[in-house]
Amino acid sequence: MPPPRPGNALPFLLLAAFRTLIDELHRRLAEQGHPELQPAHGFAMQMISRGGSLTDLGRRLGVTKQAAHKTVKGLEALGYARRKPSPVDGRRIDILLTDRGADALALSGEILNQLRDEWALVVGEEEMGRMENTLEKVGKQDGMYRILGWLGS
């Protein structure tokens, strides 16, 4: 049995696996017509798909309203998001995904499912399930939402 790795190796192992997964996702997205999408776009589009205003988006991403505005402006320029006056509050502007944005988000989900299955082929379905269960146990329930602002999205 190999000696245990030092604790400081764990964050780098997790980060390397995450980076491998996300880099491959974006390589495949580029092949399928979305070469301009970056990881931060994906996080923002996930939050935009939940509906709401620029302020809501900033809160969900854990960034300032100004940073959220910059992200939305970039997504608008790429054709993935748009602004629309709120039907319930005339002072509020809602942020929505365009059809292109919704398609890219759905495609991302499909690709991530494929990548999960490919990883399971490498390590075996049983090992993959154990890994997912372990990560779920040690991660916090709101982990995805807490990590977004931490990543500076």
Describe this structure in words.
The chain is mainly alpha-helical. It has one domain: Arc Repressor Mutant, subunit A. Helices cover 67% and strands 7% of the residues. The protein has 7 helices and 2 strands, in the order ααααββααα. The chain has a two-stranded antiparallel ribbon with strand order 1-2. A hairpin with a 7-residue loop joins strand 1 and strand 2. It is elongated and about 65 Å long.
Question: How does the SSE layout of this entry go?
Answer:
Elements: H1 9-31, H2 39-48, H3 54-61, H4 65-78, E1 81-85, E2 93-97, H5 99-123, H6 125-138, H7 143-151
Antiparallel strand pairs: 1-2
Helix pairs in contact: 1-5, 3-4, 5-6
* Apparent shape: elongated
- Sheet with the most strands: spatial strand order: 1-2
- How many runs of DSSP E, i.e. beta strands? 2
User: What is the CATH domain class?
Assistant: Mainly Alpha
H and E string: HHHHEEHHH
Q: Low-confidence parts, pLDDT < 50 over ≥5 residues?
A: 149-153
Structural domain tally:
1
CATH topology: Arc Repressor Mutant, subunit A
Please tell me how large the radius of gyration is. 18 Å
Largest sheet: 2 strands, antiparallel
Quick structural overview:
By secondary structure, the chain is mainly alpha-helical. It is built from 7 helices and 2 strands.
Which features would summarize this protein structure in a list?
single chain, 153 residues, 2 strands, 67% helix, disordered C terminus
